[in-house]
Structures are given as C-alpha cells and as structure tokens.
Amino acid sequence: MNHPLSEEKVFKDPVHNYVHVQDDLIWSLINTPEFQRLRRIRQLGTSYLTFHGAEHSRFSHSLGVYEITRRIISQFERSSYTDWPPEEKQVALCAALLHDLGHGPFSHSIEEAFHMNHEDWTCKIVLGDTEVNKVLRREGEDFPEKVASVIRKDYDKAIVVNLVSSPLDADRMDYLLRDAYFTGVNYGTIDIDRILRMLRPFQGRVVVKESGMHAVEDYLMSRYQMYWQVYFHPVTRSSEIILRQIFRRAKELHQEGFHFNFLPDPLPGLFNRDLTVEEYLLLDEALVQTSFVQWRREEDGLLADLCSRFIDRKLYKYTELEMLDMEIIDEIRRVFRELGLDPNYDLEIDFPTDLPYDVFRPEDDSKKKQILLLDRQDRLREISEVSDIVRSISGIHRGKYHMYYPEDKLRAVVHMLPKDIADLFNL
Amino acid sequence: MNHPLSEEKVFKDPVHNYVHVQDDLIWSLINTPEFQRLRRIRQLGTSYLTFHGAEHSRFSHSLGVYEITRRIISQFERSSYTDWPPEEKQVALCAALLHDLGHGPFSHSIEEAFHMNHEDWTCKIVLGDTEVNKVLRREGEDFPEKVASVIRKDYDKAIVVNLVSSPLDADRMDYLLRDAYFTGVNYGTIDIDRILRMLRPFQGRVVVKESGMHAVEDYLMSRYQMYWQVYFHPVTRSSEIILRQIFRRAKELHQEGFHFNFLPDPLPGLFNRDLTVEEYLLLDEALVQTSFVQWRREEDGLLADLCSRFIDRKLYKYTELEMLDMEIIDEIRRVFRELGLDPNYDLEIDFPTDLPYDVFRPEDDSKKKQILLLDRQDRLREISEVSDIVRSISGIHRGKYHMYYPEDKLRAVVHMLPKDIADLFNL
Amino acid sequence: MNHPLSEEKVFKDPVHNYVHVQDDLIWSLINTPEFQRLRRIRQLGTSYLTFHGAEHSRFSHSLGVYEITRRIISQFERSSYTDWPPEEKQVALCAALLHDLGHGPFSHSIEEAFHMNHEDWTCKIVLGDTEVNKVLRREGEDFPEKVASVIRKDYDKAIVVNLVSSPLDADRMDYLLRDAYFTGVNYGTIDIDRILRMLRPFQGRVVVKESGMHAVEDYLMSRYQMYWQVYFHPVTRSSEIILRQIFRRAKELHQEGFHFNFLPDPLPGLFNRDLTVEEYLLLDEALVQTSFVQWRREEDGLLADLCSRFIDRKLYKYTELEMLDMEIIDEIRRVFRELGLDPNYDLEIDFPTDLPYDVFRPEDDSKKKQILLLDRQDRLREISEVSDIVRSISGIHRGKYHMYYPEDKLRAVVHMLPKDIADLFNL
Amino acid sequence: MNHPLSEEKVFKDPVHNYVHVQDDLIWSLINTPEFQRLRRIRQLGTSYLTFHGAEHSRFSHSLGVYEITRRIISQFERSSYTDWPPEEKQVALCAALLHDLGHGPFSHSIEEAFHMNHEDWTCKIVLGDTEVNKVLRREGEDFPEKVASVIRKDYDKAIVVNLVSSPLDADRMDYLLRDAYFTGVNYGTIDIDRILRMLRPFQGRVVVKESGMHAVEDYLMSRYQMYWQVYFHPVTRSSEIILRQIFRRAKELHQEGFHFNFLPDPLPGLFNRDLTVEEYLLLDEALVQTSFVQWRREEDGLLADLCSRFIDRKLYKYTELEMLDMEIIDEIRRVFRELGLDPNYDLEIDFPTDLPYDVFRPEDDSKKKQILLLDRQDRLREISEVSDIVRSISGIHRGKYHMYYPEDKLRAVVHMLPKDIADLFNL
C-alpha cells in the first residue's frame, strides 16, 4: 500500500545527485533513531586511515542502495514487465533501505572479535521493540517479518531477494560507485545507467539483457580493481589487525577483572556477549574511537600502546611472504618469546581473501550467485560462458600472505635477531 | 632548510587527485598525534545532518591547503619571481598545514559556547609541549614561533601571511572545492589551475594578473552560492542551535552540581574553562557525539531531550521573519512562559551573517582583505573597481531572520496559542 | 498520436549520458537527410579556433534539446499537472528537435553577410518538399504547420512555445552544458536535475517553484560567465570578422564577374540570394571550409589572403578602445588609405553585444522573456524582484569596443604611421 | 637549445585542463598551416556516425600527446634521472607534437584504398619544402631529420623512440582519455597522474615502477574495453566499409574516364596515386565530405547511392557469422549476381582485428612492444609475467566475422532469396 508524500523529498547525494523519497513509509524509516545511527558507522571501516576521504557513512550508502532499487523497480513498472510482481515494491524498497541496519562499529573486525553477525542484528532491530518496527507495522502486522525474510534471503518471492542480494545488486553497485567517489580512486566508475537499463525481471530472477554484457564486464573488472586497490589495501589490513587486537585485549582484561577508567555502556555487555537490542543500538564508531582515545591512558601498557597505534596512526608494518611455511612462523614466534616480544600481539599473519567480501566466482556457487544473460531467444547463459574476460578474472586468486608487526619493537631488539629472521622483516 | 624524503610520498585525494609530500618535515608533522586528531573533527561541523556526504575531516582539508600552497610556491620558484623570498618556503608550508590544528569539535558552536578561539589553541599547540612542537624545533629553536606568528598574522614577512590568509588564499580555495565535492553541491567548482597560474608575488602581497579577473569573479560567485546553499543552510543552523543549547545546558547543570552518569575528561575542565593543552587535545567530535548518545539517558529531561534531537535528528523547525520586531519577540516569549514553554530553549532568533564566515566586502576593510589585480603596467587595482559583477555581489546582504522552535512542543499547546502567534509559526 | 518503438533507442551523449528515443516519429526525423546535415554544422561556429575542443555539432545539440524537453514533459506527465496539455507532447518534442534545422554554416556570420534568417529556413524545410515534411505529415496534414508555428512562436498553445523558447528553455540549458563540456571551460556547470524538478506548467507558461531560485541564479550566472569567457572571446570575434570579410569579398567578386576556379553549387545562388530549399540544404561547413582551402589559390590577392588567414589561423589582432570616438576612427581610416591599406578590410570595429545572443534583461522586454517564480500561495513574481544577484547581473553592460586589424600589414608600414595612431595599435 | 617564450602560452583542453607551451619552437610549429590542417582531420574518423560527440580533431590529440610527453620529461628532469639524456628534450617534444602530421582524411580507410601510409607522409612533410620544415631548421639543419627518424623509429637514442612510441606511450594515453571524453563512454578513464609518476627512464627505455602495476593493469583493461566498445563498433565498421567503397568506385570511374561534375584538386592526383606534398596537404575531411555531398548528384547511380548512404547515414546493416565458411560466401555471391545485386559492393565480410590498432600482446613481439616493470632491486620483468589479469587479457581474441549489406536492396528481392540465405540476413 502506498502513502505518497504530498511532495517528493530529496537528499542531495554526490553519487546519485539526488535520492528521491516519494512515500511516507520510507521517509518515516529514514527518520528513526535506528536508521540515523548509521550516520555514526563508516561504510569502509578503518579505510579512512589509508584514504582520508573515506569517511562516508552507512547512512549514505543505505540511501544509495534504496535509490538504485527504486530506479530498477521504476523501470520495471514503466515497462510493465509481467515477471515483476508490483505488489512487492514496498517490501523490496524497505529491505534495500534497511539491509545494513544491524552493522556495528568497524563491522568486520568487531564481528570477528565478538562472534556476531550484522544480518542477525538487522533482523532483531526490524523485529524488535524499535521505532523501525513501529513504522513497518503501519503496513501490516506481518510486514516487519516480510522485510526480515528478504534480508535473511528466505522470502518466498525469490525475485525480491535476488534484487536486494545478488552479484549485481543495488548494494554492490552503490558501494562500488560510492567508495570510488570518496576514496578518490577512479577504478570504480561504472556506467550504472546502462546496467540498470539492461536489467530484466525473468522467471523469479533479475537477469541482464545480452547486449549489456560489456557493461557488466566493466562492472566486474572495476570491482576486481577496487578489491585490490582499496578493500584489501595492506595499510587498511594493518589497522584492522590492531583494531581486533584492541578488542581482544580489552575483553581479556575485562574477564580478568581489570578496572577500566572508561567503560561506558554497553561495552561491558559487549565483552560478556550479552547485549539487548537497545544496548546494541548504543554501539557506534564514535563510542569506539572515544574509548580508544581514553584507553591510551589506561594502566595496562599493552592496551594503551595498541590504542595509541590506532588513534595516532602508528600502524604495524608488513612484509610479504613468498609462501606460508608454518615451521618458519613457529620459529619466529619462538624467537619473539625469547626476546620478550609477545607473538600473540606482535605478529599477525594475514591473507586478504579471508575477508568476508566476495569476488565473483561462478564455479563455486549455486545459481543464486550467478549473473545470467538473457538473449533474444529468451535463453539464459551464465556470463562467464559468454565473456572471455569474466572467465579470465574469475579464476584468479591474487591474495598474498603478509606478516604484520610493530616495527619499533623489532628495531629495539634487532641486534639480537637471527639474521635470516631480520631479513624476513627487512630490518 | 630542506630535508627531502628519499622518495616523494603521496596521499590519494579526491579533490586534488594527489597530495605530494617531498620533505621529511611535512611528513613528520602529518604523523604527529596532534595532526592526526584532525581526522576526528569534521570540516563542516554539523552540515552532515543536512548533506549526508559532508563527513570530510579537517585532516583532509589541512592536507589540501598544504598542497595548494605547495603548488603556488612551486610556481613562484619555477618562474623565479624576485618578490618571493625562497627561504620562506618551509615556514609557509608548515603554517598552511597547521593553520587549523587548534580547531575543537563543532568548532564554531563550541567556541561560542565556551568563549574559546581556535587560533589561540593552534598557537598553544605549536608552541607547547607537543609532538608538533618537537618536530618544528628540528628546523631551529625559533621555528615554532615563526609558524605561530604566520598563523597570528603578525609575521614580519607580510607575503607569507598573505599567502596563508587572504580573500584568495589556499584555505578558501581548498574548502570551496572540498565542501562542494563532499556535499555534492556543484556550485563550488572553480578553475583552480587557472587561478594558481595567475597569482604573482608583488611587493609583499600575492596579487592576481589582470587577465585572471574572470576566474576570480567565478571564484567569488561560487563562494557566494556556497554560503547560501551550504554554509547558511537553515537545517544546519537548526542543528547548530541545538548544539549550543546542549553545551549551555550541560554547563549550567555542571555548575549546579548535577551528577552526570557520563562525564569523562576533559569535559569537566571544558565546563570550567580550565583546560591544559594536553586536555584540549582529548576533545574531538567522537567524544561529543558519544556524550550526547549517553546523555540521552541522563535524568535532566531538557538535556536528554536536546541530545535526542541532535543525535536522532529531530531538529527545530524554523519560520522566516519579515523583519525583526523586538516587541513581537517579547510577546512570544511571554506567551511561551505562560504556556509552560521555556523561551530560553524553545525559541531562538537567528541571523546567518552573524556566523564567523566572511563574504568578501572590499569597502569595509583594510587593504589586507582585498583582492588586487596587477595590470601590464604593474599597476594594482582592487577587483571591485574593475569588475561589475564583484561590485554587485559585494553590496548584497541576503541574510534573513529566522525563528527556530521545537514543533512538537508548540503543537502540543497550539489550541492555547493566540492566533496571530500561531500564524507566525505556520501552525 | 504515439507510435512507440518496439524497443527504446538510445544515443550515447557525453552531456546527458543517454538520449532516449521512444517514439517512431522522433526516430524517423533523426534519420532524415535534413537532420543529418546538422552533423556538418558546428554548434559554436568559429569557436573551435579559440577552444580546440569545440567541434561539437548542431546535431548533438538538437538531440540534447529534445532530451531535456522530453524529461520536462515526462515530469509534467508523472505529476499529472493539470496546466500541461498532454496532447501537445509530440508537437513540443518535434519542435524541440527541429528548432535549429535551418541553421547554415557559421550561422551568425553567414546570416549577417547574406541577410538570411535561420528560423525562416527552419520553417521552409519543415513545410517544404523534404523528408522531414514527409515524416511529420504522418501525424496529420496540419502537423508540419503546427511544428513551424511553435518555431515561429505563434502557436496558439502558448505553453508549448514557452517550453521551447524562453529564458530558461531546453535550448539554453543544453547549450550551456554542452558548450562548457566541449570547450573544457567549467563555468557552464549547472544543476540541471534540480532546475528540471522545479519547473511547473502554470497558466500557459513554464514557471519555477520559488525554492528553485538559487539554482536559477546559478544558471544565469553561469550563462553570464560563458558569454564573456566563450561566446564573446576576442579571438573568436576575430575569426568571425575574417569570415564575414571573406563572404563579402567573394560576393563582390562574383558580382563583378570574377572567374572562380572553385565555385560549386549552391554558392552562386547564395551570392545572388536566390536559393531553393534543396540548394540551401547543400550548404554546410565542410563546403565553406573546402571553398576557403581552395580559394587560398584564387587570383584575387585579397580573397586568397583572407582565406589563408582563416584556414591557417593567422587571425587579426585587436586592441581595446577606451571609448568609441568616430573622429579618431575616421582619421585612422584616412591614414590607412594614404598608406595603401584598405580600411574596409584592414580595420573593423567590434562591439560584442551586437551579437544575436541574449543576456537576460528583465526590464527591456515583454513577459515572454521573463523567468517567473511561483510561491506557495501560487503567486508569480519575476525573478529579479526576488533575487538580488539577478538584479545585479541584469543591469550590467560589459561590452567594450575593440579594433581588429592585420598586424603584419600594419607592421610593414609602421615607420610611416603617426605615433598616436601607432600607439593605439600597440605597435 | 631552448628559446623560452617571454610568457607561457596555454590551450584550454577538456582532457588535460591546460596544454602548456613554454618554448617558441613548439609555438611556431603549432602555428604552421601543416599543423593547423589537423583541425580538419577527425581523431576517430567515421566514429562520429556512431558516437555523435566524437568530432574531436587530430589537432587536439596532437596537442595532448605533446602535453603528456612534456609532463613525463619534466618529471624526469625534476628527479634528475641519469638515464634520461636532457639534450633530447626538444626532439622528443617535436616528434610527439608532429607524429600524426601526415594523417589524411579518414585515415585508415583512405590508406587502405590508395595504398598510402601516414607515417611516410609525416616524414615527407617534416623533410619537405614546408613551413614545419622551416621552423624545425631553426634548431639546426639536421634537426628535421632527427625528428623524422624518431617518427620512423630508427633514431639512435632508443629512449626517445620508446617515449613517443610504445605500448604505454603518450599517444595511447592521450587517445584513450580523449576518445572516452568525446564519445562519452566512460571506460577510458585512467589514472594518468599515477601512471606518469611511475615512469622511469632505464637503460634506453621507459619502464614502470613495480608499484604502478595496478595502474597499468587498469590502463590495459580500459584499452581493451575501448577497442570493443568504440573502435570496433559495428556501426563504425559499416561506415568505413561504405567509405572504402566510395573511394574504390570513384577511382574506377576516374580510370574509366568518367566525367565528374565535382572533382577539385587534388582528387585526380589522389586517384592516380601521384601527389606532391603540397597537393597532399590540400586533402582533409571537409574536402571528402563536400565531395560526397556533391557526388550524391553524379550520374553514376552506384557512386551517388553510396555517397547518400554515407552522408545521410543510411548505412549497411550487418549480421554475425558463427564461422567463416567460404563455400557459403561464394554461394551468396552467386545468388546475389543472379538477382541483379553486385557482390563487390552489396556484400562485405569484415573481421575487426584486421584494423591497424594494436591490442597489447606480449608474446608475439619484440622487446620494444613490451611493458616492463622495474622492481626495487632494479630487475625488469615483462608485465604479463607478474600480472594475472594482463596475462588473461592478452590471450583473448574476441573478433567475430560480420557480413555487411544494404538492407533495402535485399528486402527488394527477399521473395526470390533462398530461405537459408534470407535467414542468414535475418530477413
């Protein structure tokens, strides 16, 4: 059911120029405290320490995902495609807008440190005692559950799930454009107008007209470059490592009964993995940054040092490993311990593809993760069957092992380091 | 004295593409905790509540100002202009980089609320017991004082002051471009390459070659539009009003001995107007946001309400006043009090030109604030003598009085409001 | 009557990204020889001699005007505004597409030299025995006349005329953006999305919602800058002067019975001012350039010299006059004659505002040329009543008198020139 | 020897913002009639019939190549790299500026039709009795020969040749950016600043610092996309086919003694393959277009028809061939002849990679055509050894056979076409 606003509202957006809000439901959702919280969560986590422009929030990204979804559906409606169920517009728009609602501060790191999952939290917020839930229930008592099930990917209208979550969905298109814009890296420029014009609802999926193949190739190549230039940037990885170490150390200290000078709600609950929805919503990146600023002055030297490194950007250095030889790693750890270093904090091995980002790999997945091309005879083909370039990209694993370490601490003991180990660290 | 880096370092910047660092001094300054703190201060304060892209920091702006200054000096050096003193390069670059170092969180509002001045703090940080000061002293014991005096505008080489602070300085050029980029408003696009190419050092000033007049006109017109479209946007003004009210209320409560559940350092010192440099450096926007998030749960209803308004973006509405009639205002205040509203918090009169931004007005100022054109016969003329469009702009005062108020509170008593007053508020 | 294409066609356009063609009528018009001829007419005439990127054609501009008109009407239809007559869509789109059809090569100069008018020719082509006419008649026998009358501005539905021809019409918006893009001058950037969103059909006119005032101000300021930076650029003026001199000289020679080695159809008819529509359509800028290339080798020294100047870009120099003193001009002409120069060709006085471009001047014109703002109470106000900046701009006359001359010829006689005259020419 | 201009001159350029001319030699070369002729030769030949923005000239491209070369050399000089011979600056800049001087109208097609080579003509113009030659000789009698030998790639300083002509040269970088800009296709966006910063002179070659690998990958991927999206676009291929047919038919007619109503110099010489340099310089695209406009009225029906097709853009349609089966082609030709069609004109088989563009293929070529990466230990490696993505791209042959034909002529005889053949043409 639509409740059009008396007058369309717009948000000025550097990426899409304007985000158009035409329905009171969307407007009300944007104005809930839960959605406004996304202003205090960065879209790219710690990347701002590598690319100083990357301060953009999940709030702006969420508006962008909503806007792209709106444009796709609007094109489907204009063209009266019979495979698009028009009554699903509202649930699709709401799911697009709200899909990131459960992200915590520095999402990937905090999820790893505290074994959480942002999708679960999104559903809890949508279904819990929140403003967002109240607004959604105006559409019907079962409406929050519908939105949640799109987000959980088990909604019974598969095309709605496909629209909001697929290798060529509004989410990925927005973040590619947005992250390119705010980092200033120009690899992410894609011809979104052309891609959108080429999308078709077809038998419960969103597919691409065959003549749009080159635009999709370009999109996948842009994504490929953004992964290696931005998302897996070693400096960003270094800051994420320190972030996780801080979380780990703070949790250890808390469990050991350490007295923090600064430990506001809901941090104790976070450490105990016992958070209500209300408490969870108090978590944001301002709180995390403030804690780290304050913890630079805590008595625990390790915690204070790690927080200084993060806040004052004295990150770990890294060195590339030709291969991952566990014997060598064990030897390094042993030497570290001998020299008074702590191998649990002073050494981290990192392999970027561990990250929960997905590069498109047609072979290892079910049909849902494929991009399908629709030819003039209404036949579907998976894009890598048709495109040499996509086939070439999809087989490539470029990740390399890196070893991260505090250079100052190693330099202090460099004269005691065996030469072969010193060489590994370029000391 | 130059200490070139073994290899030039660059920062990827969306506005200037790359920021180039060629000297170890600059590199070391960027890596001090005091400079890194600027990552946690937004360039545009509360504007992100109006333009969601405007999350960019003073860190990125400061790099931009440095980069523009570097390019100007580099052009001066390449052309071997005799009016440029080459030995002043380092002091000019350092002053450009550090000129915003003393900004606090939501600078304009906090300065007004606590009677501080960011320029004073910049000088205190430059001259105090800080990392920045240590790095600067590598250039000589008097070097910090030199940099501070450029920032205070009393350095004895006037041209250095003029380069860093004038109506056409690197500061203004960077923020115009940067704010336009991050808000997405395209009024700020200026031909900076052309302007830079037209600048000349001349008799202790930076002046503009006459043939660059149109580019300067365009710059001033862009600035004019940015003021009205962005800097004075009524929604931004509303958020600044609430911000100042929060600061005011918190200070009142603190002075009354109210017990805050959340009041970390250095907030008590801030309320008492008694901050050391070390404490001041703990202040940033993450702390302010976190405090407001927490204060939403404090016992004082007014404080909690104001903090909710700011954090959850339930701002005051506004209405335009045809003229400022103090009798009417007094009457409104009286009625407010009768109805249980608090005119000190529920009503604010605002006139945008009160803001500490300067629109170029040649007539009301000394020569230092003028833009001078240099003709082929080496004669100087103030630009508004030559340019009709500048003359036209400079006389215009467009500010209007606005009345800001909490719409929900007024709606609750609307049946008791005299009709003429209700009309004023469009109720 | 609409005849939708089975599938929308698009043109890739650097300015609007895509131009969308949805109706067979528009598609057929674009594919007529008369419309394709516009590929061989530059949008900015001789400006490519000043700005080497400005080679864009009236073909691309016409597509752009069509596209903007299509977007405006589409917004009117989406919003179901009652003041827009939906049955006028086709005539409006055709008039928008075809409004420049009658432009000749280097339009402004050739019109002046041969007393022609491109609007007349547009109507002749629309109404004559042409492919365009045949396509238009598919819509009805009176349809070509309807389109012609919109172009002549006497169509009985005033709003259609207003849409296609007004101070804020699709024509001006497209050329501002397009000329800025192709010259590379960034003064022409306007927020066209916002302007289009603010347009309303209202009582037989297209007006602007009051809240769009700043966007219109910006548009008018951009236009102002483009006039002075691009359209009135003295180097372009110089090339136009030489162009007119070539036309003048060739016509003189033709009337004197001179034998041209190169004089293909329809040049004789052009010189005799006796051209059929069929002949007129043979005229394009390729023909004019080819003629000039060939005429560099004609026996008449003056014609050959002028053609070399144009083709090889050896343009006249210019000097600015403080004021226009006819006594001085007459004295110069006398001296020129004495020294064997030809004052009819070796001296031209130019005053840019003579050009048939219009700067917005609210005071000197009927209501049709005004930009009207619509406030919330449905009152209309002329923009300069409300906007200080528009009022400021509209009064400004910046044109200056320039004297153009062949520098080489003057240098050859410089020793015989009286000093005061030599000074005027900076010799 | 440098002769700096008293004041730097600039050209406003949409791609590089400004092209800077600092030396009188370059300025004088730009102002020769031979260089100005490049204004009348389009950079992308007939592509404007597919992408209406692509009217940009070889004049603008040549300035761009010069500008990029200037920036590379300027970086080499600033960094005082010992492998760059500073005395070669002028010859490198001149070769960069002039490398396209010998291009004729619609270069690739005319070269094929008349067995010419633009590089030969460039050298003839540089060495012949021309203005360009006169200007070059100011630098020394042997200077024109030096420039010519760089263009012929046999100059004895290999690094100069490498700078002007290699897989990562200024030529390719400019055309990628420029063609993307003017067509509006955004696949060509590359981070040229970064690539330029990564170039190093090294042992007689220009190589790339290893850390620039991703930027080079992106450049090669952009090029790959531009080839398939723009350079090999089937509509452009169709217009080139017609162009070659016109040249072929006109030459046939001329050799048969046909009387042309329009046949100005130097067309007879062109048909006889007997052109002096002076005559060659009369050739440009204005002449070719004018000839075609006029020839639409010649008595030979075939010539007139072909010219109409080109000028009025009634191009041949095309159909894709699964494979090239000469038996089928011969059968089609036989049927065509039976039905009164002319298989020499009404049927063309096309395979895009025949075009003289090079896609980077490391395996099939000498070291000169390789892109080499320089690592920290000063070792060189060919990029496809290091980059998976480059290795993937370089093996891909995407070309497909197309059959081009006049659809109207085939439709006229469709009832007599055997069904299997009609099917091939989608009739």
Summarize the structure.
By secondary structure, chain A is of the alpha+beta class. Chain A has helices spanning 24-30, 33-36, 58-78, 89-98, 107-114, 118-127, 131-137, 143-152, 158-164, 170-183, 192-198, 213-231, 234-255, 267-271, 277-280, 285-295, 301-311, 326-338, 383-386, 388-394, 407-412, 419-424; strands at 4-13, 17-23, 199-202, 205-209, 317-321, 348-350, 372-374, 380-382, 401-405. In chain A, helix 4 runs parallel beside helix 9 (158-164).
Helix/strand layout:
The structure is a homotetramer of 427-residue chains.
Chain A: E1 4-13, E2 17-23, H1 24-30, H2 33-36, H3 58-78, H4 89-98, H5 107-114, H6 118-127, H7 131-137, H8 143-152, H9 158-164, H10 170-183, H11 192-198, E3 199-202, E4 205-209, H12 213-231, H13 234-255, H14 267-271, H15 277-280, H16 285-295, H17 301-311, E5 317-321, H18 326-338, E6 348-350, E7 372-374, E8 380-382, H19 383-386, H20 388-394, E9 401-405, H21 407-412, H22 419-424
Count of distinct structural domains of chain A: 2
Mean pLDDT of chain A comes to 91
The CATH homologous superfamily name of the largest domain in chain A equals: Hypothetical protein af1432
Structure summary, number of beta strands of chain A:
9
Describe the global form of chain A.
Answer: globular
| Fraction of residues in β-strands of chain A | 5-15%
Biggest interface, chains and residue tallies = C-D, 45 and 45 residues
Q: How large is the count of helical segments of chain A?
A: 22
- The gyration radius over C-alpha positions of chain A equals 24 Å
Strand order of the largest sheet of chain A: 3-4-7-8
Question: What class would the helix/strand composition of chain A place it in?
Answer: alpha+beta
Please outline the major beta sheet of chain A: 4 strands, mixed
Low-confidence stretches of chain A: 354-360
CATH architecture of the largest domain in chain A: Orthogonal Bundle
- The CATH topology assignment of the largest domain in chain A is Hypothetical protein af1432
